[in-house]
Every structure is written in C-alpha cells, then in structure tokens.
C-alpha cells in the first residue's frame, strides 16, 4: 500500500529550474513548519509571526553542516495559497543548492508534490472557484501523462533492478516473520530471530547508504563538477576561464581586482561537465565590494570538487601564493603556472611540496600553450581517478528518490534501534515493512499482496 | 414449483438463511437489537456445526473472537463454555500477535449455541430450505422455502455456506451435498444468479477422522494446553478456567517418505490434479497432495491429532486435508507414525460451493444490487468459523438496523480485524477462500487481542448488544488502567542496592538516579510484577487484564504512538466520502483501468478508493477534485 496520501505535507521547487537568481522551495501541509524547522537554523519558526520572512541557514540536521544561507517565509493557514500552513525557502538558486535543500526537506517528512498538487489543494480547501477548478483538472490530466513518463525516465533500469532486489531480500525476511506469527506451531519454518533480522537490516542499510553516496556523484554528472579557479589578482584566471568557455564572459583587464562577481558557467571539457566558478582574486583587501568577492572565493574553494590554482610563473612565489596553496592542499587541485611565455621565475620544482608533477601544468593563455594538456589532465582526473564519480555504478539523482531512500534508511535505523532495545521481532518488523514500502514507492510497486504471495510460495503451511 | 402449494407464513423484521457460525451471530444480533427474527437452517442438528477443525481462534482469528465478544456477539462466550483445551500462542513475541486458541468439543459447541438461540426472545429457529428470495422493486422483502412458506421481512441475511450447490468429491466419487453429507441448497444459487448477482466457485476440504482408541500415542508428541488462565470472552470468570488435568491434549506426528510416495503414486486419482475440481482452493490450507506436489523437496509435514470432543472417539488429523480416494486415504493414514493401526471413521473430502463475489457488497455487507439483502460468511468467499462469525455479526447488526430504520454500522481497518477483513473483501475481492492473517492488518499493534474491549465495547453498547451492567464493568476496568498508568508515571524507582542487584542479574545497566516506574517498566526484561517489588502496591489489587493493558501500553508506547499517527493520517481520507450516486462515466481523465475498477467496486470513501489496485494517485486526485467540484457547483450527480 502506498504511503503517500492526499493529506501529506508536500514540497517542490516553485521556481523554474535554471541558473542564477533565487530559487523558492515551497512546502505545504500540516507539518510544513515543523519539517522545515528540522533543517533550519535561525529563529524558531514555530514561534515567528505568520507572513514573515526570516533570515537563517539550512543545515544538514545530523552533521549540523550549513547547506545554504536562506530567507524563509512562514505563512500559516488559512490565509495562504493552499489554505494550509505554507513555508517557502528562498535560496541562492543553482540546481545544486536547491536540490540539496529539497532533498533535506523530503528526507525529513515531506513528500514530493505531484504536478499541480499545490493548486489542487488550493481548490480542495475552497480557495479557488469552479472555473479555476476546471483548469486544475486540465492541469492534472495534462501533467499526469507527462509526469509518469518523466518519472519512468528518471528511474534508470539498473537502479530499479537494485531496488527490486533489495525489496525482494526484505520481502523474504518479512514473509518469514509473518509465517512465524501466523503459523507459530510449524516447527519446520526456521524462527526468525532478531539476530538474523539485524544482519539483514544491516546488509540492506549498507546498500542504501552506498546508493545515497552515489547521489553526490549523480549530482556531479547532472550539475557539473564544481570547479573553482583561484589565484592572486591578475594572474590570468579570467583569461583561463574565457579560454575554457571559448568566449569573453568575465571582464578581463590588467587592473587587479576587476573580476568582482562570481561567475558560474558550465563548460564541457572533454566530456567532463565543469561548473566553473571564476572568482575575484584572493587577497587581503580593504575595498568593500572586493571583500565580498574574496569571501566568496574562499567559500567557493570550500564547496568546490576541483580547484585550479593559478600562479604567475613570471613572478617569484609570494606569501599569498603560498597561502593559497596551503589552504587548497586538501582539495583535488591542479596548479597552473601561467604566463610561461614570459621569463620563468617559478619552476615546477618550487611547487613539488604541494603537488605531484602531473598536477602542475605550465600554460600561456596568451599563446594557447599547455591548455590542451590542462584539459586532458582534467578529463583523466575525472574519468580515471574519479573525482566523486564512478561511471559504472548505479546512481541516484532524483530528489524524490533520494528523499525516499533517506527515509528508508531511517526506517532501518529504527529497526536496529528496536533490536538494540530488546523489542520482539514482530514489532521491529513494523519498521522493516515501512522500509519495504518506501523502497516500493521508488519503483512504484508497493502492494500488500506481494507479501502473501511470497509467504505461500516460500513456506508450506496450513492445516 | 411443482406440486408444493405456497402459503403465507409469518412476518418478521429480519430473516437469516443458514445457521452456521455467520448465521448464528447474525440472528442473535438482530434479535437482541429488538427485531423479530427468523433463523432458517437446513438441519436443526447442524446449528453452529464445525464441519472441519475442532478449534476456535489462533493468530488473527483469536482476535476476531474477542472483537465479536466486545461487540456483544456469542462466539467467545460459547467457546469458553465448551472448550477442551486452551492455549495462548506466540507468547514469545510482541503483544500484537499473541493469540488465544481453544480446542472445542464440537458437539457441545453446537448444542450450547443452539440452546442460546432457542432461549433468545424475539428469535425463532426453524428447519427448512430457502429456495428463493422475494425481491420487489430492487428490494429484498423475504424468502420462500421448499415447503411453500412465504416469509416476509424488512431485511434478509444469506449465510448459506458450503451448502450453496455444494458438491463433495472423494477420489472418483462425486455427489451433491452440503458440509458433512448434509442436504445441499440447490435452488437458492440459481435464484441469486437470476437476480443478477455474480457467483463464483470455490473449493475447500477436510481431513479424515480416525478412532482415537486406535492411535498409538507413544509414537507422537504431546501438545498440552496452558496452565495459565485465559478466556476469549471478557465476561468469562477466571474461576471457571479448566485446570490442566481437565483439559485434553493434542498430539503431534509427521508424514514421511512412504506417505509421500503413496500420494505421488496415486496422483492420477487425485481430483485436485485430474481436472475434476474446478473450484479455487485456499493456498493457506492446502490439501496434503497439494503440499507434496508444490513442496516436493520437503521430507515431512507436521500433523496434529486433535480430539473432536469429550464424548466421542473421533479424532481430527489436522494437516491431512485430502480428496484422494478412500482406499488411498487409508494407506496414507497407515503410513504415518502412531496411525499404523488407526481406523478411519470418516474419509476426508473436498467440497465445491458457490460464492457471491464480494466486490458486489457494500462495507455494510448489503448487496449493492438488491437493497435489504445482506450476505455473510463462506457465501462471501471467506474460510474459517471466526471470519464467518465476524461477518455474520456485522450483517446481522446492519440488517437489524435497517429493520429499525436506523443508519448502518461499519468498522474501520484501524478499529478491528473484522474491519480489515470486510474492507479487503469488498475492495479487493478475493480469488481464493479468504482467511484472516495478521499480515493483512497494517495497524496490528493497535488491533490487539488484549484491547478488543477497549476498542469495541462502547460501540456494542450503542448498538444495544452490551448490557448496562457490562458497560459499567468495562468502564471500571478502563478507569483502573488509566489510574495505574498515571501512578506509574509519577512514582519513582530508587537506585537501591536491591533494585540494582535485580537489574544487573538481567544484564542491564545499573540505575544511578531514580527513574519513573513507567520508564523502568519499559526495560525489556522487567515485568509489571518485577516492578511491584520496588514500588508500593496500587491502592487496590489489579485484575490481570488491567495489568496486561498497563504493561503493553507502557512497554510498547513508542510503536503504538507511531501506529496511531498513521491512523490519524489515514483518518482524513476515511472521512472523505464519495457520494453514493457518483457517475464515474461523467469524470474525464480517469485512466481506463481506474474507471472500470471504480465503477465495479464503488468505494465509499477516498481512503477505500486508494486501496483499489489499479487506481493510482492521479486518479485519486481527479476524483477528489471532481467530488469537490460537485459540492461547489451543485452538479447533479
């Protein structure tokens, strides 16, 4: 039986997908406020006045890591679009952050909204009149086919197979528990102990956690490998970016500090989707506008999957260069010795402490020297050494799937917790069944009768 | 009708056709609600007869018996008066799946129920075969018997069981018969078909019975009853419990390779496989030949030898249901340890019978097609005495309410196993005889045997089936539970040496600070009685049933709370009613399959609609919008 219902709290991205600007994630339903509260740090949303906007951060509730800086609007029923409690999270746009926030909200109790569902609720709760209602019917009708297709496309064959296998594993366990309950005197059916159940739950949990790890890799393929280009002012970062983009996007001048905004661009480098983040030069600055840029560069380094450190080969290494190399030491990093067309003041050996020889690449953006080598190195890093990606594994990329997997994972956590607390097997099994149902929602087959079919085909029971 | 002259019989409020386990409950309920009721049976000596296993209860079923009792039904009281063995199953598991089962003296069970029915004011028990229903203007108004009597009534319950065009099969032998060689009802089925109801054919079976004096018990294992007191009825008194020495034991033995060879060698004579049997049999109650074929690698199958009563030598061989020829049945029996010299008293047989496909019923068990006509029990495709009795009670209540011109009564899936069963039947239908299993209930932690009275007594009272006296006792119990729960949530267990010695002897962490008694009780190995050693006793000594409630509600509070949250979530959908006369053809955009299924099943609530396979969330969305639209625009539907 599907656990999704008409009255769940639902969530979806309310703004059209795309880069830049601001994204809004809308959450509607009885638990909207309490769910967002779980992933929000700032004022207590349960207590803020209705129809207010509140500044704060979205956090990953377990690790307390900050995910994004956000503004959260809280609108209490009934004066809202859906006539239910509505919370809107305004975040920094960009697929990555938006999806991450949505996933967190889905993992914490909301369900992904169906197409047109906010509007449908508005209608069901008496917010719309008949003509608007007709429009809603059309919307649902039109979007049903499309969304079904989309959902099917999102469900990659190998993922679906994997989930089905997991469900079958769980089903066999469930059938055994059930048969123990309904036929307690049949001694030829092995009694499923909590020990066996724990082993099974742990096993399934490992698979789900592996899958959830791929969620990040999937994200890379879809959203690009976040790549930060950093370096002192005027070492040629913008020129490098322009080269990779094959167009003039960033403002390039000889005056240090003219690239003030973080520009995000997608570029395909030999099959690797890079999301390039050109940054304002990293340096101590008193300039107010510039300072924001510098802070954001530091942030860019922190969130980047790959950092390209650009150093001016025609000037000796400065403290700033060294500082930059030090703070990027733990990152996946390539060092680009630019301006090799000029007299070299920095040799590859000078950088040996910071990087392997193949990760130090001499270039001249001006004369196009070394740029092929750079692109090749990026591709080999991604494909051969695998920056957060593994082409052969099953990947989860869909926010709804990730949300369900997270919930399934939590259910297994409850199974293990119950076993540790000494609960009898038939109680612990309730959470195991929940996990099975949640996984079924991913593949679209949650059907109670499966269990009975399994039970009667697996065991010979009956009077 | 040839030769038989019709005559006008008496008028009744409610007529029940068939006096098996469904019919007995239906008739008693209707009569107790104040309706002048007629109970018709083909044979007065087969009222509440047990044609198959001599037992009542077990997993899920035992909970149904308690539910029947809490609603004012008879089954629980009747078995408590006539059991020969009582046993609580699944004691090592959680509270939701513990199940009481009794071995019945099947003759005493029948006699006791018949006596109760005979002594019920308002209720007339009469022998006769109902051939036809009186149906006018789409309403059922009575029945016509084969003796020509026309009885009129405001509502009719049909619970004809396997008598409905019953056919017994033993090997090559085949003949029309009701259960246990009783007379079958041949005409009623035809009449139901003519009235437009869709009938299907099901099959069930029963094992041979043997003379208990010819069993060699030394070759078998004893399965005694329980020393600990337990009854089905919340009204039965602990003092009446049979001591172990007054209970009868069952005995366990096994089939073996020889048995299996005999069966395999004679499969060509097995009606199950020769194509003779067309009815669909239950998977959970397979015949022995079915087990051997489907689970070919199993070396042995368990068989339980069960006494059929105190004053008979007949023993029931549970696990050996078969329709093999009599000769083969004997060989099978003699191949089994302990039964080498057993004398077969009755052969096992398969029986085919007619079933009213249950999708044609409302959750009240009234047929959608014919007003005031209700069906219950095996007629609706279920199997088992308890399932039958549960439906009989609901059908009888609703027929009674109809006769009284009152609103109908249903139970939700979150209220009772009876609710789960009826919802399954009318929403999903069934393509094999339906048996209740704990796994069918999504809220089984709420549907426990220990709290059946908490769930249903008040409903029974409102229906007029529970006396004032019983309600008062129930309320006292409820109060006692609440008081003790409150107390345990305020009294503290101190970390004394005594307490910690106890805790450590159970391999648990010692207490550093005092804890609430309730919290202490939550530890898996601490029982209520253990707890009492460390806190003052309650003001008055508590009844064991009160203690059971307190213990379960404290120990499993976390899980119960979760289940209750799920129920609350579902409740909103349960509350969304679908208008009776909704025209699914007028709704654009429903998927074809959903459209067909909705039209066929005609769910009563949105929640029920979501449970229909093939109706997906988008269809539900369109349906809810459509219903709401009707409300706003006042569209005639």
From TrEMBL, chain A:
The keyword Nucleus does not apply. This is tRNA modification GTPase MnmE. GO terms for cellular component: cytosol. It is found in: Cytoplasm. PANTHER family: TRNA MODIFICATION GTPASE GTPBP3 (PTHR42714), TRNA MODIFICATION GTPASE GTPBP3, MITOCHONDRIAL (PTHR42714:SF2). Pfam families: MMR_HSR1, MnmE_helical, TrmE_N. Mg(2+) binds at residues 238, 259. GTP binds at residues 234-239, 253-259, 278-281. GO terms for molecular function: GTP binding; GTPase activity; identical protein binding; metal ion binding. InterPro entries: G_TrmE, GTP-bd, GTP-bd_TrmE_N, GTPase_MnmE, MnmE_dom2, MnmE_helical, P-loop_NTPase, Small_GTP-bd. Signal peptide: none annotated. Binds 1 potassium ion per subunit. Belongs to the TRAFAC class TrmE-Era-EngA-EngB-Septin-like GTPase superfamily. TrmE GTPase family. Its EC number is 3.6.-.-. One of its GO terms (biological process) is tRNA methylation. Homodimer. Heterotetramer of two MnmE and two MnmG subunits. (6S)-5-formyl-5,6,7,8-tetrahydrofolate binds at residues 26, 88, 127, 463. K(+) binds at residues 234, 253, 255, 258. Residues 224-383 form the TrmE-type G domain. It is an enzyme of class 3 (hydrolase). Its cofactor is K(+). Exhibits a very high intrinsic GTPase hydrolysis rate. Involved in the addition of a carboxymethylaminomethyl (cmnm) group at the wobble position (U34) of certain tRNAs, forming tRNA-cmnm(5)s(2)U34.
TrEMBL record, chain B:
GO terms for biological process: tRNA methylation; tRNA wobble uridine modification. Keywords: Cytoplasm, FAD, Flavoprotein, NAD, tRNA processing. Its main location: cytoplasm. Residues 554-625 form the tRNA uridine 5-carboxymethylaminomethyl modification enzyme C-terminal subdomain domain. InterPro entries: FAD/NAD-bd_sf, GIDA_C_N, MnmG, MnmG-rel, MnmG-rel_CS, MnmG_C, MnmG_C_subdom, MnmG_C_subdom_sf. NAD(+) binds at residues 281-295. GO terms for molecular function: flavin adenine dinucleotide binding. FAD binds at residues 18-23. Its cofactor is FAD. It comes from the Bacteria. GO terms for cellular component: cytosol. NAD-binding protein involved in the addition of a carboxymethylaminomethyl (cmnm) group at the wobble position (U34) of certain tRNAs, forming tRNA-cmnm(5)s(2)U34. HAMAP family: MnmG_GidA. Homodimer. Heterotetramer of two MnmE and two MnmG subunits. NCBIfam families: mnmG_gidA. This is tRNA uridine 5-carboxymethylaminomethyl modification enzyme MnmG. The gene is mnmG.
């Amino acid at each position: 039986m599907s656990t999704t219902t008409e009255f769940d709290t639902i969530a979806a991205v309310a703004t059209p997908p795309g880069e830049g600007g601001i994204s809004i994630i809308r959450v509607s339903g009885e638990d909207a406020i309490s769910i967002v509260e779980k992933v929000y740090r700032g004022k207590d949303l349960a207590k803020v006045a209705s129809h207010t906007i509140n500044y704060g951060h979205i956090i990953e509730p377990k690790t307390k890591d900050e995910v994004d800086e956000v503004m959260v609007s809280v609108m209490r029923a009934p004066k809202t679009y859906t006539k239910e409690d509505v919370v809107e999270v305004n975040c920094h746009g960009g697929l990555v952050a938006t999806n991450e926030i949505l996933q967190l909200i889905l993992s914490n109790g909301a369900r992904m909204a169906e197409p047109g569902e906010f509007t449908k609720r508005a209608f069901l709760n008496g917010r719309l009149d008949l003509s608007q209602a007709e429009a809603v019917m059309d919307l649902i009708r039109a979007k049903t086919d499309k969304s079904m297709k989309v959902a099917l496309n999102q469900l990659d064959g190998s993922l679906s197979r994997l989930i089905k296998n997991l469900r079958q594993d769980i089903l066999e366990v469930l059938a055994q528990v059930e048969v123990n309950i309904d036929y307690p005197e049949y001694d030829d059916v092995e009694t499923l102990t909590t020990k066996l159940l724990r082993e099974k739950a742990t096993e399934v949990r490992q698979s789900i956690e592996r899958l959830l790890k791929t969620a990040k890799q999937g994200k890379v393929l879809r959203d690009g490998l976040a790549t930060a280009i950093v370096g002192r002012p005027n070492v040629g970062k913008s020129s490098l970016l322009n080269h990779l983009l094959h167009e003039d996007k960033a403002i390039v001048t000889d005056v240090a500090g003219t690239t003030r905004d973080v520009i995000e661009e997608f570029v395909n480098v030999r099959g690797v989707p890079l999301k390039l983040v050109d940054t304002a030069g990293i340096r101590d600055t008193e300039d107010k506008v510039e300072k924001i840029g510098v802070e954001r560069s530091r942030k860019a380094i922190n969130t980047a999957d790959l950092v390209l450190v650009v150093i001016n080969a025609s000037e000796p290494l400065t403290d700033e260069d060294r500082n930059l190399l030090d703070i990027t030491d733990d990152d996946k990093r390539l060092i680009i010795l630019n301006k090799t067309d000029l007299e070299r003041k920095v040799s590859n050996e000078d950088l040996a402490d910071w990087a392997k020889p193949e990760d130090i690449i001499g270039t001249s953006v001006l004369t196009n020297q070394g740029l092929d080598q750079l692109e090749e190195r990026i591709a080999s890093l991604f494909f051969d050494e695998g920056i957060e990606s593994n082409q052969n594994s099953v990947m989860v990329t869909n926010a709804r799937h990730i949300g369900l997997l997270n919930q399934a994972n939590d259910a297994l956590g409850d199974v293990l917790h119950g076993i540790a607390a000494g609960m009898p097997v038939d109680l612990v099994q309730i959470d195991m069944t929940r996990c099975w149902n949640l996984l079924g929602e991913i593949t679209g087959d949650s059907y109670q009768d499966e269990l009975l079919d399994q039970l009667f085909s697996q065991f010979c029971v009956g009077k | 009708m040839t030769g038989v002259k019709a005559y006008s019989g008496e008028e009744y409020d409610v007529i029940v056709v068939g006096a098996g386990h469904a019919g007995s409950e239906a008739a008693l309920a209707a009569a107790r609600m104040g309706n002048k009721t007629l109970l018709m049976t083909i044979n007065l000596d087969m009222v509440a007869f047990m044609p198959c296993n001599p037992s009542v209860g077990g997993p899920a079923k035992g909970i149904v018996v308690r539910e029947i009792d809490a609603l004012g039904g008879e089954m629980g009281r009747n078995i408590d008066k006539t059991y020969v063995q009582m046993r609580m199953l699944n004691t090592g598991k959680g509270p939701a799946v513990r199940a009481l089962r009794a071995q019945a003296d099947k003759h005493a069970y029948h006699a006791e129920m018949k006596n109760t029915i005979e002594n019920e004011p308002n209720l007339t028990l009469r022998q006769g075969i109902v051939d036809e229903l009186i149906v006018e203007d789409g309403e059922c108004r009575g029945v016509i018997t084969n003796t020509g009597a026309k009885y009129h009534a405001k509502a009719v319950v049909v619970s004809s069981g396997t008598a409905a065009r019953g056919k017994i099969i033993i090997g090559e032998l085949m003949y029309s018969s009701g259960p246990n060689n009783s007379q079958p009802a041949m005409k009623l089925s035809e009449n139901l078909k003519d009235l437009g109801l869709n009938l299907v054919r099901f099959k069930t079976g029963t094992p041979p019975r043997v003379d208990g004096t010819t069993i060699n018990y030394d070759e078998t294992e004893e399965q005694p009853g329980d020393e600990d007191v337990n009854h089905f009825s919340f009204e039965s008194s602990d003092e009446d419990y049979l001591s172990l020495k007054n209970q009868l034991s069952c005995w366990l033995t096994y089939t073996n390779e020889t048995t299996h060879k005999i069966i395999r060698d004679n499969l060509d004579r097995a009606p199950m496989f020769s194509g003779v049997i067309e009815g669909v049999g239950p998977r959970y109650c397979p015949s022995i030949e079915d087990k051997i074929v489907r689970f070919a690698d199993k070396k042995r199958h368990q068989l339980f030898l069960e006494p059929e009563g105190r004053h008979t030598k007949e023993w029931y061989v549970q696990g050996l249901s078969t329709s093999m020829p009599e000769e083969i049945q004997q060989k099978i029996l003699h191949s089994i340890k302990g039964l080498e010299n057993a004398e077969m008293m009755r052969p096992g047989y398969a029986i085919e019978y007619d079933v009213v496909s249950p999708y044609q019923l409302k959750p009240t068990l009234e047929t959608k097609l014919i007003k005031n006509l209700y069906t219950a029990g095996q007629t609706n495709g279920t199997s088992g005495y308890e399932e039958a009795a549960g439906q009989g009670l609901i059908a009888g209540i609703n027929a009674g309410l109809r006769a009284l011109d009152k609103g109908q009564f249903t139970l939700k899936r979150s209220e009772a196993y009876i609710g789960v069963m009826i919802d399954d039947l009318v929403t999903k239908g069934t393509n094999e005889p339906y048996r209740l299993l704990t796994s069918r209930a999504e809220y089984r932690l709420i549907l426990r045997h220990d709290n059946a009275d908490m769930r249903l007594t008040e409903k029974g009272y409102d229906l007029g089936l529970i006396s004032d006296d019983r309600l008062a006792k129930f309320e006292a119990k409820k109060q006692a539970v609440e008081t003790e729960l409150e107390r345990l949530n305020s009294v503290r267990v101190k970390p004394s040496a005594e307490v910690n010695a106890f805790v450590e002897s159970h391999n648990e962490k010692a207490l550093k600070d005092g804890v609430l008694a309730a919290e202490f009780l939550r530890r898996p190995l601490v029982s209520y009685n253990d707890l009492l050693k460390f806190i003052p006793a309650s003001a008055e000594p508590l009844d064991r049933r009160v203690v059971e409630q307190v213990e379960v509600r404290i120990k499993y509070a976390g899980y119960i709370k979760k289940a209750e949250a799920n129920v609350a979530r579902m409740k909103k959908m349960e509350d969304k009613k679908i208008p009776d006369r909704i025209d699914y053809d007028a709704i654009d955009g429903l998927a074809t399959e959903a459209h067909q299924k909705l039209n066929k099943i005609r769910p009563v609530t949105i929640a029920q609609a979501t449970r229909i396979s093939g109706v997906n969330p988008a269809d539900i969305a369109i349906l809810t919008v459509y219903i709401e639209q009707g409300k706003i625009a006042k569209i005639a539907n």
